[in-house]
Amino acid sequence: MTLMDTESAPATAVDDLRSPLAGERQRRPEGRDRYTISEVATYAGLSAHTLRWYERIGLMPHVDRSHTGQRRYTDRDLDWLDLVGRLRLTGMPVADMVRYAELVRQGEHTFPERERLLSAHRDDVRMRIAELRSTLEVLDYKIDIYADARRASEGA
After folding, report:
1. What digits encode the pLDDT tens for the residues 60-114?
2. CA dist 21 → 2, 64, 91, 113, 151 (Å)
3. Which three-class secondary structure state does DSSP give residue 35?
4. Which DSSP string do the residues of 48-115 spell out, in sequence order?
5. Residue 40 φ then ψ, to 5°
6. How many Å separate Cα 62 from the centre of its chain?
7. What is the pLDDT of residues 114-131, one digit of tens each?
């Protein structure tokens, strides 16, 4: 089950799905489940233009509208945006995120393909983390050289 699959999930399942993402996100107003595009933009750190673009390209699920046509986002939408934000942070290409969203909308029979897509991306992330660790070691080495040189010149 994914965050986007929570529409028919019991409340406890939704709460369980939120927990991995809840650590770093801003608090939502209590007792609310309808947000304007400006509130969501502030919450997600995105522009309203980006949120509209996400809808146009199929990255966001259908967003409800008020009787005046204004978008009304739900907590489920915010959960989805939390996931999208994490995927963006890992460098997942937009095309892959859109593909994932399409698979989620198609239903449970796409679980194997979703798993393959996320597993392949996880492998890419792990490779980039290893590259960054190696680069960090080089930086630490260079910093140590300069710190040793500074200490030697201060002691002389």
Report:
1. 988 999 999 999 999 999 999 999 999 999 999 999 999 999 999 999 999 999 9
2. 12, 23, 17, 23, 44
3. strand
4. HHHHHHHHHHTSSPPPEE-TTS-EEB-HHHHHHHHHHHHHHHTT--HHHHHHHHHHHHH-GGGHHHHH
5. -70, -40
6. 18
7. 999 999 999 999 999 999
Q: Which two tokens stand for residue 147?
A: 């710190």
Count helices and strands (H / E) in the chain.
6, 2
Per-residue pLDDT at 56 exceeds 70: yes
Distances (CA, A) of 26 to 30, 87, 134: 12, 18, 33
Pairing mode, if any, of strands 71-72 and 64-65?
A: antiparallel
